[in-house]
């Protein structure tokens, strides 16, 4: 009788599927590598200014993943240095990157997997037309007791007009936009028949 060895896969604690081709996570650790390798990420978007450790950088190189370190590019030192608000530039550039289907499958990552990542996902949901209550419910599901009111406020006030949609949008977003446009037309038609 032969024994089959099952290799257990361990996803990062804050790992999640945002939309087809878009995933979220906290900082990758070696324990997560077998799981992460299976997805064959094309792009990893790092939203924190921290630099991934050498082992994680090697995993990305070996796997042919392109690291886009937006957190380092948009970070400005502030006092106190332990905390900084998320910047509009970070979220704008992050959205434009993850909405380009050429970068898929893409992993959005920050140190905690909560603050920058949660804010970026919240702003994506806003762009998708989610109501604010649903956006905050999702944000808090990941953040738990670490939720920051300032991030929720940022999502609510973020100006979607700052975002330039890429030419190669994912099909799910195109479908959503068409569906929302149809609903809008139907509502307008109903209003016209009422008058």
Task: Provide a descriptive summary of the structure in words.
β3 (43-46), α2 and β4 form a beta-alpha-beta unit. With 195 residues, this protein is α/β, with parallel strands linked by helices. Mean pLDDT is 87; it is low at 79-83. A 5-stranded mixed sheet has the order 1-2-5-3-4, sandwiched between helices. It contains 8 helices and 5 strands.
Radius of gyration: 19 Å
Which range does the strand content fall in? Answer: 5-15%
The shape, in one word, is globular
**What's the rounded overall pLDDT mean?**
87
Succession of helices and strands: EEHEHEHHEHHHH
Class derived from helix and strand content: alpha/beta
Which regions contain 5 or more consecutive residues with pLDDT less than 50?
79-83
What's the arrangement of strands in the largest beta sheet? 1-2-5-3-4
- The amount of helix comes to 40-55%
Largest sheet: 5 strands, mixed
Give the beta-strand count: 5
Question: How would you summarize this macromolecular structure in one to three sentences?
Answer:
With 195 residues, the protein is an alpha/beta fold. The chain has helices at 33-39, 54-62, 70-74, 88-98, 115-127, 132-143, 149-157, 171-194; strands at 16-19, 22-25, 43-46, 66-68, 106-109.
């Amino acid at each position: 009788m032969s024994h089959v060895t099952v290799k257990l896969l361990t996803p990062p604690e804050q790992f999640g599927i945002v939309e087809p081709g878009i995933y979220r996570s906290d900082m990758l650790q070696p324990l997560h590598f077998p799981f992460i390798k299976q997805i064959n990420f094309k792009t990893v978007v790092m939203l924190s200014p921290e630099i991934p450790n050498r082992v994680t950088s090697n995993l990305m190189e070996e796997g042919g993943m392109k690291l886009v370190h937006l957190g380092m590019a948009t970070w400005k030192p502030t006092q106190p240095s332990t905390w900084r608000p998320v910047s509009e530039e970070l979220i704008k550039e992050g959205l434009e990157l993850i909405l380009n289907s050429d970068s898929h499958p893409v992993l959005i990552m920050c140190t905690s997997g909560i603050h920058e990542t949660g804010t970026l996902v919240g702003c994506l949901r806003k762009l998708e037309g989610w109501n604010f209550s649903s956006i905050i419910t999702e944000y808090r599901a990941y953040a738990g007791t670490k939720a920051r009111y300032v991030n929720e406020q940022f999502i609510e006030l973020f100006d979607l007009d700052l975002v330039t949609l890429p030419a190669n949008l994912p099909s799910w977003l195109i479908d959503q936009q068409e569906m929302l446009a149809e609903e809008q037309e139907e509502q307008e038609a109903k209003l016209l028949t009422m008058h």
